[in-house]
């Protein structure tokens, strides 16, 4: 076979693309290089035509090339987040050095659009995406709770057709859910026979099959069924060293990779760790809406002891030689695209990986595990997705936060980062005219026979999981003589199975349109009167950027009682961008009845 040189390949690329498609060559000179696997104390790297032309360049700078000094800096491959749910903020990952995302469930249309842009060489302003598309789950199972209808799998005999349909849609790999839920949040799950059938179906088509799990038992079962990788670990406060080592040996024997996803496990444990330090130049790159998920968590209270298990298991996996990948599960509370990768790297080091191993887990290892082609390495002919940082992340992993420059397909993204900083700065300019003017007494419940109204916003209406595909129902009725002479509303709710997080109740929309944000920062608390059947209910609140409502429980006893809840008790909620306030029954199934009156938003 005739040998084709890298230079010849680059020449052919130039002939095949418009002259303006590539910027001038760039030479990063005399820089410490982590090439995805090994460290090179001092090298120069030449970038031409969107790829790495020479990973160990030793000549003079080419004519017209931009020369970037590498003194005191480290050049890394662009980071690869091996577990995200990419459904919004597509511009963010690249700003933080994440040049590729491996997506575990997103809309098919979004997946296809980005795939087309990548194929056309027109995806330079955002991270590349390799996606599972629609996950493989049971009816009523994990993944069905997000309000968009998706196909589900019922039995092993249907697995091949189901997997083939995903591949036809463009799925790069197949993701399968083995998850029964926890506590009150039980959900349907595929049985093991169907999980194995889906794995086998993917393998017959040459596709990877990865499995979502949340318990050790399901993790072992997925590996025994032939999973290529586990996309989570699991929280818990204790696991024996022998048990962790046995699980690691099983993963190694099955040649499977594991993505611990510490960032979301910390959220599940109620532990909120800032993704970057206050001195990092990355700290000012998120606008208010983008910051919101980082202020919330799945866990209602901090339980750091629950992180003992994933730390112990990760250490055992690494010691056993199992491939560990860095993934954040961005798109969930406690995470944000791009920036959370820097926390994930630190968490892997805290769990026992060396900084070098953690960096490999975010570069060359996911590129190899997910078969992503020539990326994740600094080597001749590889994509010029690169990250230049001040300092040495191979001795101090936090140095990844000191980003000097990022390249995507050989082009600097400094202009994109400057534009984001400018937008964030403009947002900080006060706009008091946008604040909702609340009535003097703060009362937002103006209930009459004609309308469940309010002096501000859209007003009140029924709220239940039927709008998300569930089967709960609710009936509202006027109470002419409620608390202190004010009309109230009675809520008769039936919380039924069919949605993983069922609810039914009444909601207030403060915006001019349903779910439009309203600035309620003139208020500091919500006060209301309630009575009912003695059961436990939830005050819920949502704001822009929040995907899971913040909740505070209350009990509706036989007599009217006043309840006061400060906004500060609603973690992750931005009072300047509230989209909904709800009073709901659930998630416990059954019938409920309570009455609500005299709802006020007050300054004190």
TrEMBL record:
What InterPro entries does the record tag this protein with?
Answer: Amidohydro-rel (IPR006680), Galactose-bd-like_sf (IPR008979), Metal-dep_hydrolase_composite (IPR011059), Metal_Hydrolase (IPR032466), Metallo-dep_Hydrolase (IPR051781), NADH-UbQ_OxRdtase-assoc_prot30 (IPR013857)
| Keywords carried by this UniProt record | Hydrolase, Signal
Q: Name one GO molecular function term.
A: hydrolase activity, acting on carbon-nitrogen (but not peptide) bonds
Lineage, top-rank taxon, reads Bacteria
Would the keyword Hydrolase be found if you checked this record's keyword annotation? yes
Q: Which residues form the NADH:ubiquinone oxidoreductase intermediate-associated protein domain?
A: 459-570
A Pfam family (short name) is Amidohydro_1
- Carries keyword Acetylation? no
Location of the Amidohydrolase-related domain: 74-411
Protein's UniProt name: Amidohydrolase family protein
Q: Which organism is it from?
A: Massilia polaris
In the record, what lineage is assigned to the organism producing the protein? Bacteria, Pseudomonadati, Pseudomonadota, Betaproteobacteria, Burkholderiales
């Amino acid at each position: 076979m005739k040998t084709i040189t890298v230079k010849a390949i680059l020449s052919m690329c130039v002939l095949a693309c418009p002259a303006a498609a590539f910027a001038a060559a760039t030479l990063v000179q005399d820089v410490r290089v982590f090439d995805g696997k090994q460290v090179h104390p001092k090298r120069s790297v030449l970038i031409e035509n969107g790829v790495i032309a020479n990973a160990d360049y030793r000549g003079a700078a080419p004519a017209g090339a931009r020369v970037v000094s590498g003194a005191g800096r480290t050049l890394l491959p662009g980071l690869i987040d091996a577990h995200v749910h990419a459904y919004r903020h597509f511009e963010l990952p690249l700003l933080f050095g994440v040049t590729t995302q491996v997506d575990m469930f997103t809309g098919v249309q979004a997946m296809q659009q980005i795939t087309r842009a990548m194929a056309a060489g027109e995806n330079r302003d955002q991270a590349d995406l390799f996606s599972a598309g629609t996950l493989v789950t049971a009816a009523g199972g994990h993944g069905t709770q997000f309000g968009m209808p998706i196909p589900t799998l019922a039995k092993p005999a249907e697995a091949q057709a189901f997997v083939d349909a995903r591949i036809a849609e463009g799925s790069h790999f197949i993701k399968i859910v083995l998850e029964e839920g926890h506590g009150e949040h039980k959900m349907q799950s595929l049985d093991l026979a169907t999980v194995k059938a889906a794995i086998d179906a993917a393998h017959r088509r040459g596709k990877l099959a990865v499995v979502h799990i949340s318990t050790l038992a399901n993790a072992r079962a997925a590996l025994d069924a032939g999973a290529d990788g586990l996309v989570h670990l699991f929280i818990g406060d204790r696991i024996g060293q022998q048990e962790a080592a046995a699980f690691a040996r099983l993963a190694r024997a099955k040649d499977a990779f594991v993505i611990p996803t510490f960032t979301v496990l910390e959220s599940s444990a109620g532990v909120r760790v800032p993704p970057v330090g206050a001195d990092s130049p990355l700290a000012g790159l998120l606008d208010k809406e983008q910051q919101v998920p980082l202020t919330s968590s799945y866990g209602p209270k901090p339980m750091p002891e629950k992180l003992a298990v994933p730390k112990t298991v990760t250490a055992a996996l690494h010691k056993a030689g199992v491939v560990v990948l860095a993934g954040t599960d961005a798109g969930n509370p406690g995470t944000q695209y791009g920036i959370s990768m820097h926390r994930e790297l630190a968490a892997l080091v805290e769990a026992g990986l060396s900084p070098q191993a953690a960096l490999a887990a975010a570069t060359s290892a996911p590129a190899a595990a997910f078969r992503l082609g020539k990326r994740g390495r600094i080597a001749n002919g590889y994509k010029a997705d690169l990250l230049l940082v001040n300092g040495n992340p191979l001795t101090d992993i936090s140095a990844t936060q000191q980003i000097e420059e990022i390249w995507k397909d050989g082009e600097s993204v400094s202009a994109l980062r400057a534009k984001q900083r400018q937008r964030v700065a403009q947002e900080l300019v006060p706009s008091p005219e946008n604040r909702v003017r609340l009535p003097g007494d703060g009362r937002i419940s103006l209930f009459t026979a004609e309308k469940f109204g309010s002096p501000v916003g859209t007003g009140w209406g029924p709220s239940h999981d039927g709008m998300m595909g569930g089967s709960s129902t609710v009936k509202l009725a006027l109470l002419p003589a409620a608390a202190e002479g004010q009309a109230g509303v009675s809520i008769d709710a039936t919380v039924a199975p069919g949605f993983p997080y069922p609810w039914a109740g009444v909601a207030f929309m403060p915006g001019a349109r349903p779910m439009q944000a309203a600035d309620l920062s003139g208020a500091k608390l919500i006060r209301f009167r309630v009575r009912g059947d003695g059961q436990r209910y939830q005050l819920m609140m949502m704001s822009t950027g929040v995907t899971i409502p913040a909740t505070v429980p209350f009990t509706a006893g036989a007599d009217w009682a006043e309840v006061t809840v400060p906004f500060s008790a609603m973690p992750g909620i931005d009072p300047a961008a509230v989209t909904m306030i709800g009073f709901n029954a659930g998630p416990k199934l059954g019938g409920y009845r309570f009455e609500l009156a005299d709802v006020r938003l007050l300054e004190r």
